[in-house]
Structures are given as structure tokens and as C-alpha cells.
């Protein structure tokens, strides 16, 4: 059994590290310090169709064991979760430099985590389109520039609205400049659109 100590790691790192380990190991044990992390791991298991077991060892200490199904976890019958059917083609649109409403500081961290999580997906988006305040993420000063450049290197098309760049007086460091007509075309033709 491969073991991961994800205590103190912020979302989505426990899920990402566990998913990576499952590529090479049949059974992975992940230690986390909050219930949300256990729920996120369970959702990953639902997508993959693996076997999930969780034990709370202390108030802030959980042990999650995930098996591909080829190994026994305990004497009790483990919970087998059916995989969720998905289609692979999608694009991502980002229209702000924060994710969600409330704290802008938290929103910036969430959006940075979202873009990093895109880089760790088994299926990458076809395109990522930035408009309005979202264009602030494609500039040289962006905390997400390295992740976006990595996506571009892997063939993901990155687009930024030219009128939006002009409005904010910005120059993109990654991706192509586009216009609203082309953005509408891409959105209209997309099989699925993901918006953080």
C-alpha cells in the first residue's frame, strides 16, 4: 500500500497527489486533516469507479484508503462506487481574476488552484478563453502564468479578449489575442463549457 501524508495540504493537493499515486499503485492510503478533503477524495473515487474507505482517527486526522479493486482493504465489505459517465471535450472560460463571491483574497487563491488543477486533469480542455477581468491572468505578473504556459505547451489553446486587454492596458504573456465575435463562435461550437 502506497502512503501519502497530505496533512496540512490545501485543496486540491490531496486529490492530485492521490490520483497521481493511483497511476502506479493498486492501493493508496492518504492522510488528511479535514472532512472536506475526505469528501473530495470520495468524489474522485466516484469518477474513477474505485473502492473507498475512510476512518476518522482523531478530530483533525482522517485516513482514506482507495483501492482499484484488486486488493482487500478490511474484513468489512468496502463501499464500491460506480464511475460517473463523462464526455471528454470541453473549453474553459474565465471572466474575472477571482473565483466566486465574498473575499477577493480567497477568490484569487481559489482561481489559482482551479487553473493549477486544470494542469493535473487526465483530460485537458481544448481551449481556455479569458475576457473582462480574466485577462489579468495571462500577463507576465500573473501567479497562474506558469500553469497557463504549461497548458499551452500541451496543446491547450489560450485566448484573451483584445478589447479587454486594451481596457486594462495589458499585454498578454501567453496565448493569442482574439475578439468577441470569435469568442461567441468558440462558445457556440463548444460541446461543454466550464466556468469557475
From TrEMBL:
In terms of Pfam families, this protein maps to:
TusA
Q: Which residues form a coiled coil?
A: none
> For the UPF0033 domain, which residue ranges apply?
3-68
Q: Which InterPro entries match?
A: DsrEFH-like, Se_metab_YedF, TusA-like, TusA-like_sf
Matches recorded under Gene3D superfamilies: TusA-like domain
Give the highest taxon in the source lineage: Bacteria
Q: What is this protein called?
A: Sulfurtransferase-like selenium metabolism protein YedF
Amino acid at each position: 500500500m502506497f502512503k501519502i501524508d497530505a496533512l496540512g495540504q490545501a485543496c486540491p493537493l490531496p486529490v492530485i497527489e492521490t490520483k497521481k499515486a493511483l497511476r502506479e499503485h493498486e492501493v493508496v492510503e492518504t492522510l488528511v486533516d479535514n472532512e472536506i478533503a475526505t469528501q473530495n477524495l470520495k468524489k474522485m473515487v466516484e469518477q474513477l469507479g474505485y473502492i473507498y474507505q475512510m476512518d476518522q482517527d482523531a478530530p483533525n486526522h482522517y485516513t482514506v484508503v482507495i483501492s482499484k479493486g484488486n486488493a482487500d482493504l478490511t474484513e468489512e465489505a468496502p463501499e464500491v462506487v460506480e464511475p460517473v459517465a463523462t464526455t471528454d471535450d470541453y473549453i474553459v472560460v474565465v471572466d474575472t481574476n477571482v473565483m466566486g463571491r465574498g473575499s477577493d483574497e480567497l477568490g484569487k487563491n481559489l482561481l489559482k488552484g482551479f487553473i493549477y488543477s486544470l494542469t493535473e486533469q487526465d483530460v485537458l480542455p481544448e481551449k481556455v478563453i479569458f475576457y473582462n477581468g480574466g485577462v489579468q491572468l495571462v500577463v507576465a505578473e500573473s501567479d497562474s502564468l506558469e500553469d497557463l504556459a504549461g497548458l499551452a505547451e500541451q496543446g491547450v489553446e489560450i485566448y484573451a479578449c483584445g478589447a479587454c486587454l486594451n481596457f486594462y492596458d495589458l499585454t498578454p504573456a501567453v496565448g493569442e489575442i482574439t475578439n468577441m465575435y470569435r469568442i461567441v463562435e468558440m462558445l457556440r461550437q463548444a460541446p461543454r463549457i466550464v466556468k469557475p
